[in-house]
Write a structure and sequence with these properties.
The protein is mostly helical and 174 residues long. It has ten helices and no strands. It is globular and about 40 Å long.
């Protein structure tokens, strides 16, 4: 009955609906999540903080990102950074989602915010490097990937990104 009510009110995809029901989320939070365009709640409205569990937006954003629903993950993470502006996970998801939909102006602002929070970490350098790789800025991407490698040579993400970078450079030389 709850599933039918949520599905009819919010028109979620069946996969997302199943994932949300399995995690045991409450329908009141779904109503807030679905109300991005609602004039009663704006991105600047801090009263919505009480309606979210600490990781609800980030968990939902990660699910959408993993399912390659980058537009949806962008909207969810945009809300997450408005509700939890000090959470680096929200900013990382927002920046990565913005990168995947080609909103590099937005991801640049998110990376500026992240530089203050986690600026000297492999995660930061990997993400900003990947952003530059998506833009086709290979020299800058390589520089960031190498910074990530210097901080943590055993990081698998860094190794994959450097391999991707190497393949990108080879492709460009053909």
């Amino acid at each position: 009955m709850l599933a039918h009510r949520i599905r009819s009110q919010l028109r979620f995809s069946p996969l997302l609906l199943a994932a949300l029901i399995v995690t045991g989320c409450q329908s009141a939070a779904f109503d807030e999540l679905a109300a991005f365009g609602d004039s009663a709640k704006t991105l600047e409205d801090d009263s919505a903080v009480a309606f979210y569990k600490n990781d609800e937006l980030i968990t939902t954003g990660k699910l959408q990102f993993k399912e390659k629903n980058y537009g949806k993950s962008y909207a969810i993470y945009k809300r997450a950074v408005a509700v939890f502006p000090e959470d680096p996970a929200a900013w990382l998801g927002f920046a990565a989602s913005a990168d995947m939909i080609g909103r590099f102006d937005t991801s640049d602002r998110a990376y500026q915010q992240l530089s203050k929070m986690i600026g000297n970490s492999p995660v930061y350098y990997n993400n900003i490097g990947y952003s530059h790789l998506l833009r086709g800025d290979l020299p800058t991407a390589r520089r960031y990937f190498l910074k990530a490698y210097e901080l943590d040579p055993s990081n698998e993400t860094t190794a994959r990104n450097l391999e991707l970078m190497k393949n990108s450079v080879r492709f460009a030389q053909r």
